[in-house]
Amino acid sequence: MRRALAMFGALPALLLSTALAAADDDVITLGAAVQSSGPQANTGRYYADAYQLAVDTINAKGGVTVAGKTYKLALKLYDNQSDVSLDVRQYVKLITADKVNFLLGPFASNHVLDTSSVAEKYEIPMVQGGGASGQIYSRGYKYIFGTLPPAGDYYGSTIEMMGKLDPKPASVALVAADDSFDVSVAKGTREHLKQAGLDLVVDEKYAENSSDFSSILSVVKSKAPDVILLSGHETEALNFIRQMKSLDVSPKGFYAFTVGVPTEDFRNALGDDANYAFGMTTWLPEESQKDQWFGNAAEFAKVYKDKFGYEPDYHAASAVADVETYAVAIAKAGSLDPKKVRDALASVEFDSLYAHIKYGENGQIVLPQVVIQIQDGKVVPIYATDFLNKPHYPVPGWDDRK
Amino acid sequence: MRLVVVILLVVAAGLLAAVPLLGDAVLVQYGINALLVATLAQSWNIIGGFAGYPSFGNSVFFGLGIYGTAIAMTQFGLPFGVGLCLGAALAVLCALLFGLPVLRLRGHYFAIATLGLSFAVAAVISNLEIAGANIGLILPLIRADGMFYELALGLLVACVLCVYAISRSRFGMGLIAIREDEDAAASMGVNTTLYKTAALMIAAFFTSIAGGIHAYWITFIDPASSFDPTLNVRMVIMAMFGGPGTVLGPVFGALVLSAIYEMLASWISTAAALLFGLVIVIAVIFMPRGLADLAVGLRRHGPGYLLQNIRRHRI
Amino acid sequence: MLLAQIIVNGILLGGLYGLMALGMALVWGVLNIVNLAHGAFVMLGGYAVYFLFTGAGIDPFLALPIAMAIMFAFGYLLQLIVLNQIIRSAQLNTLLITFGLDVVLTYLAQLLFSADFRTISPSYAGANITVLGITIPLARLAAFGIAWLLAAILWFILNRLAFGRSIRATAQNLIAARLYGVNPRQLYAVTFGIGAALAGAAGGLYGIVSHLSPYVGAPLTAKAFVIAVIGGLDNPLSVILAGLVIGIAESLAALYFGPTYANVISFGLLVAILVLRPARSLRAA
Asked: What is the ipTM of this complex?
């Protein structure tokens, strides 16, 4: 009896905690739950910080004009603690209790996969910059848009570059994690390699979050490939390099990673061992990348670093682009109706500090990756459609480095 | 006295069933989650509370229920009901096949063996193409939270009724005997192997149905979230918190702890995990025998009960 | 030759695995506490070495004993203040409370150290030697050696020193040990402290061969479980040996089945060994 009452006591308390004021008249609220704590907080923080900066900057420059009326943007952020089920519940809360107007995405493909189902169920648009897996866009959903390009094409530019290197590499070792994003990368990469006529001598899949690569590296070493391509998370790339060094594995040509290389703390953690590593990014803080709210990408990078104390990378730029997409699309739609905004999103096209924004048929942006290399501790863009700078190639063996 | 309890419970069930009508989607979401977890805690109660075999691997049944349903629906296009049956069949079969050898172990070793089993099965599934390997499966999208809520509630009610029936049956007495002194029970003629395995299979059944409902509700499943090891600890904590071996204890434990966690997550967001951890530590120190015992103890001894607990269990 | 390299990899990896399990096996065997926060202790020990190295410039291998002392104190206090209060309640409660502690410690670590990952990278971290065509990373070799050394020291303490005998006596029969004048509170605290110190040493080495973040703990706890159970809770040396078995098994599985099968092998082996082992060598519930 008392127990039953105690249990019921929890319900009204919960209702109270979820009851919120209705959305303000002159405010457009964007909602998201990102990883501010938990194992993915390392990257999640880029999204939390970038979303906030974008909203503040757009507001400072006059907000968004919809059908003649001026609106300010507001941000409702939750910490999903890197927990996917909590993430889902928080998105339902954002839509139904907090009554946000539109949604921004969390980081990581598996989070996006689950939470985008919520957005689709409730028919509220979600623009996300955290998931690139092919699975996200293979479901025929109409309300999901993304600013990370298709995972399968991540190594596209790198493979194109390989055709123009001298000496030309012939054999490749592909090592990929088994989670959604990396499986997509591996699948697409195999196709690209086949088309380029390159020989895949090692094709290994490992369990995500592995910390020991000694077996894989021993196999790779025994096959002596020209190029090693890794697709995995940052900590995996980090461990891979360290273990390459301690097992003295060095390809004749070069080695590349899908993530990690553009990020500041990755380079800090590795110190000198980070040099010569190839990577990729969809974004570089160039002045040529113009933006109507931040001026250009270089200025954005400066403002970001001054405010948050660490350099932004493509995650942050992608997140800013998501917010800007809404500013442009809502103005274009001339309305706050989710369906109208959804249609505007499908046809929107503009320049942002991140890239030229235009979403494909399935909602995903198409952007080439720029191949980069760490040279003397700095990130140097190497190849986009042609060489931008000279690569340090072939990469010297571990004993031959300074 | 008994009749009053029964009436109150029926009223409670009715009120719970009416929640979707309130139109608060967040509450329904929370409700689905809480009800499914309560079923997990109550199923665990059968093998852990009554039989005294603390399984730390019930997540394997949850995961098999998820995958059975998902594979049936996505790879073979079968309807949801059939999927649930497939998931339940897989889980019960697993309980039978692995239960027989593993139930010969006692105490911690049993716990570790079941934990190991759930990791092993998760690892096997993440290598199976039909299960989508590690990238998981995508189920058809359906917007029917009310239906999922009522299903979860119905499952919980069924599970509670089952546990009630067990508690009043010879089977239940046998399980308690096994818990208190297995060798004595065996020498008294209790077929311990049969009883233990049956208990595990029943627990597996309810756990897997909960998994099937969860799969269709969440639409995207993968090995990491389906065989989540922390789920094991959570269902055990909830059952222990509520009072293992009682009929309603685990249900209340689960609902109260879920409510606490959800409130922490929405009020404080970031520190919720920390506070939840602290709640567990404090609960184990001050009420190691669960809520049920707390209610009785407080009534009998007042707040001194809490300190008494420490005095009794410390060294 | 590839096979030989893989086996050597497995042996070296196994040494570190064994060291990780050593502390857990000790605490489990003596105190009957299955410490689900063991991985968190490993992580904290790693951070201790990290800060000693980057903050005070102490060589990581020299910082290991200091980190071990810090972790000993931490474990000692934790047992004395928290765990001793519940140690005679249901066995399950120690699992639950250590789970809660794991959550708290991980959260505090993220708060204090941020989610950034760190590496302990002395100049020799990547050094290796090549013997008969097999590359041997020196840091891993050192970790392997330290694992055996610590296990041997622990064995010596438990079997040759009076203090160790009182630990084993208390593990076997608490009441009798008390009759002989053992102070269980102190003894438990010291034992738990030793377990934490061993975890800390493993953490420091882990930071050198891999990386550190507040979240590295959980999978390490799982590994430690497996190895502690397989190695048995009585003999520290057999725990290291069990680590080698798992290390080699995983490496061979990676070669012949694929790296995604590592967990299938370790946990499959765990279940198989538990089930097939003769009943009388297991402690009763």
From this structure: 0.88
